[in-house]
Amino acid sequence: MSAADPPVVHLPPERYDDRGAFAQGGTAAVHLTMDRVLGRSVATKIAKSGDPVQLARFRREACITAQLEHPNIVPVHDLGGTWFTMKRVEGATLSALVRGEPYGVPLLGKMIDILIKVCDALAFAHDRKVIHRDLKPENVMVGRFGQVYLMDWGIAQVDGAADTPFAGTTAWVAPEQARGETCDPRTDVWGVGGLLYYALCGARPNQGATPDERVASARASRRPLLPAELAPKRNLPFELVRIAMKALEPDPARRYPDIAAMAVDLQAVRDGGWWFELRVFPVDAEIVREGDEADTAYILVQGVCEVRQNGGPIAELGPGEIFGEAALLVGGPRTASVVALTEVVTRVITRDALEAELGRDRWMGALVRGLARRFHELSTENLERKH
């Protein structure tokens, strides 16, 4: 047998029942295996090559992954000469998730939560001087119950050392990695930026028709196109675009200084109503009209508005106040008009965006709907008395 021939694989038959491959990679296949001792299904990764160098890298991957014990890194259970077993993750890759869901608020909401967990895993690894270097949608697994696992640590850099200076998938490598330079945590910041970029516009950060073109683009430190240029019909949240493009800066010094800083921004966006579009209205604009069916509510960010019923003013609204929310939640006509007294900036709350937020906490969603219904009824009763 030559060094390049497939190795002879012997899983201990008294423990493992091999039930066949369910995934294939360039250097290994992943098999579904029954662990007879513990009575559970596991995933077994089996090397495709008997080459000593390739086998050394294969075993290195198993050892690195096993030493990174974290809730968002798949655990390794057992290691043989040409195989290792790990937790079987039932779910889908991030790539399949993005391709399978219509673009919109629910998908981006999931993506933010997923990427925060990926950042947690990377922060843990970076603390142990491990740089992943292979962040791409196929290497993030999302379980059926929301579990997130960062997979495939085969080309990780440990303590500043890697098996090969340049390795990775050409569409997803950071500029310094493409040039064969030593990587640091900001290389993985670039990788997470690429994942967010993919969720926003469905494109890879390194563009090109061939691997050579994509590598050339990365080495030249070309800034990726703005997501809006690739997906002009999508209403892309400004803050998420800003985070993605900051992470994807060609110069590492201009990126987030570490993965924790990026996670802080993602958490702030997740908690701050990022999905509500900003809209500007000129002076005297009628933002909502009494009697119209409700399809949006508004948060006043800047400026002053006047609330009118039956053509007469009844109140003024300033920054931080909300209008239109009751009718939006429970349906029915607007009970008042709102007119801009100055130029105003609002966040526009659509029913889809609001339902996505309320759906994050069903108990709170039910409470908000109940309160909105009662306020709407009281408002309607007051209007009828005036008539």
Task: Describe the main β-sheet briefly.
Answer: 5 strands, antiparallel
Distance between the termini: 95 Å
From the alpha-carbon coordinates, what is the Rg to the nearest angstrom? 26 Å
Give the SSE order as H and E letters.
EEEHEEEHHEEEEHHHHHHEEEEEEHEEHH
Give the CATH H-level superfamily of the largest domain: Transferase(Phosphotransferase) domain 1
- Shape annotation: elongated
Low-confidence spans: pLDDT under 50, at least 5 residues? none
Q: What level of helicity do the residues show? A: 25-40%
CATH class of the largest domain: Mainly Alpha
- The counted number of beta strands is 18
What amount of the residues lies in strands? 15-25%
Average residue-wise pLDDT = 86
The number of distinct helices, counting runs of at least 4 residues, comes to 12
CATH hierarchy: architecture of the largest domain? Orthogonal Bundle
User: Can you tell me the CATH topology of the largest domain?
Assistant: Transferase(Phosphotransferase), domain 1
Decide which structural class fits the backbone. Answer: alpha+beta
Total discrete domains: 3
